[in-house]
């Protein structure tokens, strides 16, 4: 009996240690920390009941006198950075210490060899190889395709001129998907008119908010890898196979017909063929982790496809919503756009877009209020002492920059809930460094940021020039965000209506 009692006490003690021991990590280091609500899982359960942006903003707002705050991602200690100067240090000045993202990843899984997953020198090598895709010259070369997709969008929206409410993201995401398919892969999908396109289904499935996705993101790397090997994921394996097949067929078709297009797929295929030839000549070891193989090609194609269509569609949608809610801003944008287009033959050419300064500020303010990513994380590769403190972070420590919270801090952006494009008029105000990070910051800033801005500008210019955006009975104010979404997804969508633009008025 005594033995059973002792074993019971030991079991309870071990469970107590397991349940609570991780959650005094920051206290032991003299760091103020967010209260932990539950043993074992910390604040994970509460995190499922509210959008990540709201949770992080609350943790940020509750400690106005702290430069950083200790938090936990389930049981993993994470340092939440509040001080813009520290943001600059972590993301830029001391980037050599925080080279990698904090997400656990395994690039050896199916479609896993992409920029978001790779670390250290493997990431750096791939980044350098892919960067030429987004030079000014390459953007100019893709511009006519942007305009062509925009014209298809306008023709589709003409059917909505009767004033009926419509969900913006449903319409705009078809435009952005067609843009990515055309500019990146040379595919003419026409999802604007084909709602049953397999590519559209892949995109929508990958970004549908779900409890499954949230839970999987919190699992240890070993379990996440096991799920992928068992073909258990948010995107069904048959959809992934369809995407890979479509990419391979496009490459084969181009080779057979000696077609050359200056797009993302062409650049990646050149890299693939170059390394393949080097391997055949015994000049390169096929096991070299820096080899640009078929898996690297399709992995980056898939991520670029998903990120390119979803984040830009969301940005355009929020901008349309804000213009509908702010008539004075919309009219000023219309005046600018129509004036510039008249100078350029009625077409939003590359040079015309550079002249639309107010529209650029509208996009910047939209990205402030609704950043594509609500936060960005990094993991310490070396021991690091936080500047201006006695806190030393061991290698492997995780830090989190709360982008949404910084963008909504009245100390840096007065009246943060108001839509004020003039904040980004550089002749009047200067944005403090470390407070505005819509695409992240430092060397790991989003590689497609310039392309995304150009795409948004072309789409918005054509929409505003043809339609007046107005509120409808379905338009919500303020908007609410989906609880289980990875990005800043509006709950129930974004609804407006349009009227034909009276250009003679």
Structural features:
505 residues, 19 helices, Cytochrome P450, monooxygenase
Structure description:
It comes from Nesidiocoris tenuis. The protein is of the alpha+beta class. Helices cover 50% and strands 7% of the residues. The chain contains 19 helices and 9 strands. The protein has helices at residues 2-20, 25-28, 44-47, 52-61, 84-93, 120-130, 136-157, 168-185, 198-207, 211-218, 221-229, 237-256, 264-280, 294-325, 327-343, 350-355, 357-369, 403-407, 449-466, and strands at residues 68-73, 76-81, 166-167, 376-379, 384-385, 392-393, 398-401, 467-470, 495-500. A 4-stranded mixed sheet has the order 1-2-7-4. A 3-stranded antiparallel sheet has the order 3-9-8. Strands 5-6 form a two-stranded antiparallel ribbon. Strand 1 (68-73) and strand 2 form a beta hairpin. Helix 14 crosses helix 17 (357-369) and helix 15 crosses helix 19 (449-466). The longest helix is centred in the middle third of the chain and has 32 residues, at 294-325. The mean pLDDT is 86.
| Strand arrangement in the largest pleated sheet | 1-2-7-4
Low-confidence stretches: none
Distance between the termini: 93 Å
**What is the overall silhouette?**
globular
- Category by helix and strand content: alpha+beta
Our estimate of the beta-strand percent is: 5-15%
* Total helical segments: 19
The residue fraction in helices comes out at 40-55%
Provide the succession of SSEs. HHHHEEHHHEHHHHHHHHHHEEEEHHEE
Mean pLDDT over the full residue set: 86
Task: Please state the CA-atom Rg, rounded to the nearest Å.
Answer: 24 Å
Extended strand count: 9
User: Major beta sheet, specifics?
Assistant: 4 strands, mixed
Subcellular location: Endoplasmic reticulum membrane; Microsome membrane
Pfam families: p450 (PF00067)
Main location: endoplasmic reticulum
Family: Belongs to the cytochrome P450 family.
